[in-house]
Amino acid sequence: GEALAVSARVAPLGSRLVLLLVEDLTEARRIEAVRRDFVANVSHELKTPVGALSLLSEAVMDASDDPEAVERFAGRMQIEATRLTNLVQELIDLSRVQNDDPLEDAEPVRVDELVAEAIDRCRHQAGTKQITMAAGGTADLSIWGNRGQLAAALGNLVENAVNYSPARTRVGIAARRVTAPGGDLIEIAVTDQGIGISEKDRERVFERFYRVDPARSRQTGGTGLGLAIVKHVAASHGGEVTVWSSEGQGSTFTLRLPEAAAARDRGIDHDMPG
Ligand code: ADP
């Protein structure tokens, strides 16, 4: 009687265990597949500029008696070398935001400083396209987080806004404090009047190496990693990034991140007994 009762109790538990095990295996397989895809993508992305550099260096050698051709090829080598440098830097950035806990050295980070830095980073590119950049609402706001990661995230959004917009348009950066049940948040919205993103692509642009138009992305020196970095930074800070877009009209990328004082207060409450 006892044995039967026990086995009756264990049997459903056993099948649940098997189910858990199967789910675990499926998840492990999925992670493995994502990792393999990533490595394949990285290899492919590295091969393109390395292959071009190799061909161009041969071309330079063959054209040694034609200074104009040498100069032309050397110019293109420089572009490919820059592309390679960007890609490696973004891979390092991505691995850093995936592996480091940003809140380990979190501090209050002023939004006006972040915004000024992001605008500075794009000033040259915006200037050549006569794109106006304007920021508002940033005074007296601070985010609780990792300064370097936050700067990388906002910098990527502003850079994209400039890259995917036609000449003589406007990029706006608007910040504000919003009340939320879990504590106040800082919202930073980057709005452009660019090409926009279709509904189908909107879900995918945050994936590593996903580009709507690979040729255009490459032209602007894009790596396809920028928004993956932004998404990671937002999530690991306990925030989020969302996108609104209308094709041919423009896009708005919105970051929501913990407000400095609110996050710190929560942290202190957390540590205090009772
Ligand atoms: P990339 O280095 O190609 O810019 P991202 O990860 O930053 O990579 O962006 C992924 C893709 O999302 C881009 O290739 C582009 O197709 C699209 N995208 C990103 N930002 C914008 C924007 N502001 N307007 C239109 N398309 C955008």
Automatic annotation (TrEMBL):
| Enzyme Commission code(s) on record | 2.7.13.3
Mind listing the GO molecular function terms for this protein? ATP binding; phosphoprotein phosphatase activity; phosphorelay sensor kinase activity
Name this polypeptide is given: Sensor-like histidine kinase SenX3
Parent-protein residues present: 122 to 395 of 425
Q: Which keywords does UniProt give here? A: ATP-binding, Cell membrane, Kinase, Membrane, Nucleotide-binding, Phosphoprotein, Transferase, Transmembrane, Transmembrane helix, Two-component regulatory system
Q: What class of enzyme is it?
A: transferase
Catalyses which reaction? Answer: ATP + protein L-histidine = ADP + protein N-phospho-L-histidine
The record's subcellular location field reads: Cell membrane
The GO cellular component terms are: plasma membrane
| Residue intervals of the Histidine kinase domain | 41-261
Give the UniProt record's GO annotations in the biological process aspect: cellular response to phosphate starvation
